[in-house]
Amino acid sequence: MKIEGKHYRSVWVDEDGWSVRIFDQTRLPWALEILRLTDEEQVAHAIRSMQVRGAPLIGAVAAYGVALALREDASTERLETVCAMLAETRPTAINLRWAIERMLAALRNQPPARRVAAAYAEAKAIADDDAETCRRIGEHGLPLIEQAAARKAAGEVVNVLTHCNAGWLATVDYGTALSPIYQAHDAGIPVHVWVDETRPRNQGAALTAFELGRHGVPHTVVADNAGGHLMQHGQVDLVIVGTDRVTRTGDVANKIGTYLKALAARDNGVPFWVAMPHSTLDMRVRDGIAEIPIEERAGEEVTELTGRNEAGEIVRVRVAAEGSPAANPAFDVTPARLVTGLITERGRCDASEAGLLSLYPEKG
Predict the structure, then answer these.
(1) Which sequence positions are flagged as catalytic?
(2) Is the pTM of this model over 0.85?
(3) CATH superfamily, with its number, for domain 140-363
(4) Does the annotation list 203 as a binding residue?
(5) Does the annotation place 54 within a ligand binding site?
(6) Which residues, at least 6 apart from 190, have a Cβ–Cβ distance to it below 8 Å?
């Protein structure tokens, strides 16, 4: 993605050749701040605090965290300990475990003297793989928007609703759910995005709107509860969301509130598509509702909000009644029966075991 004419990925190695740079996503959209990470503890904090977030991105950043840790001690014991620690930072997104397992496979049989260079090389390969995967997801999702545009009158916009942030900030580049939208916009297709605010952390209002605005894509931020109303009145042509984990049977874990959008889409005959990179597929799980661990985050994310006041200061305010506790499940699971299909880097398929194996036969 370009910011002020300069292309950025969401994670990169600094000019010193070893430290890692990320955007502090907790400061967006009010301030564009770049953090420098120099050890695995800083990486773990960045992931836990959601300075970096989005399933594919946290996997790539964690991979670089392994490389940073091995600079100090490249022993096998150190490798195993650091990988175990980083794998526990976020429980729901399977990409994190996928990246850690890939790092372990690449490094376990390397002699300690070669591990640091090998770790940086593998982390870069993971990042490059994610960027290319997301670009291809865009290619395979673009026809869905083209087909919607073909059903419209000349010049009439295609309205896409999305939930949370599944753009370049959630990945290394391009995004998952937003990748087809960017490609449609760049191809001259008139596309407009309904951006769910995505409470409680407002990733839609803060991050998706920031991205789309910088890229010049027309969009409108709406309250999370507005999606069903928009669908009832024919103002949504299709829904495209990202995912943090897809089961063998096509169940989809994504940001809390996704399930409700899928129900509304089914009731109104609106196609509900999920953009899925291969690193998000978990063939070890069949029943998403029963088996996917759902992260429970701090209640303060629900009872308090961060924003900019009239003086231009970034402040945090309480919005819930004093003394009221809050529950904060960060994800929900949409059953496969509500998913129109999956958009992957290999093509589109049904949200089912047969559909997934048609694109990923090696995972059978």
Answers:
(1) 244
(2) yes
(3) Translation initiation factor eif-2b; domain 2 (3.40.50.10470)
(4) yes
(5) yes
(6) 149, 155, 156, 157, 158
